Amino acid sequence: MKTGEARYFLALIPKEPLASEIYDLKQEMKTVYNSKAALRSPAHLTLHMPFLWKERNEDRLMDLIAQATKCEPFNLFLDGYGAFPPKTIYIKSKESAKLNAFHAEFISYTKRELKLLNSTHNRGFNPHITIAFRDLKKDMFDLAWQDLKTKPFQAKMEVESFWLLKHDGKQWHAYKEFLFSMDK
After folding, report:
1. Which of 20, 35, 166, 175 counts the most CB atoms within 10 A of its CB?
2. Which helix (H) or strand (E) is 20 found in, with range?
3. Residue 59, in any domain of the structure
4. How many other C-beta atoms can be found within 10 angstroms of the C-beta atom of residue 116?
């Protein structure tokens, strides 16, 4: 990272009490399976992978992102657990035409107006909320996945906004919320 640049990413963040429920699951992953990396960010569903932006141009970033809020609020349904072996365990999102349409338009906008590339992981857009990754060892992954793969988890996530998250050098913080509006 160059001097004067900061790391950001764009995501959906669940409201309370769902946010705390997911935090508790991340805490359980730390306590039981020795994986704490997911605790370095709030519970979130990534819309755009981390990117670098000059901090001195942060106001411009906010202005441009604010123009990408034309969307009607919608509900997203979380249902069960999924995994990207051998390190990642997450809460699955049910298929959502509204989320997919918003994401496609949003990514097109960020590419065109913010010149941001690599919007999604190399697996493509697979909406989920990570509860363990990166530091989850293979043997612990196997144990955790055995415990969680058939365990139920269901929740409704009201989506009325998205967030810009910013990294402080140690962890990610919800930095600025952008509420949906049909007026743009």
Report:
1. 35
2. helix 18-33
3. yes
4. 20
> Could you report the per-residue pLDDT of 109-122, keeping only the tens digit for each?
999 999 887 766 65
* DSSP assignment string, 73-130: -EEEEEEEEEEETTTEEEEEEPP-HHHHHHHHHHHHHHHHHS-----S-TT----EEE
Residues of the chain above pLDDT 70, percent: 96
For residue 184, tell me if it sits in a domain. Answer: no
pLDDT, tens digit, for every residue of 118-137?
766 656 789 999 999 999 99
Structural domains of the chain, count: 1
User: pTM for this one?
Assistant: 0.93
Domain of 128?
5-179
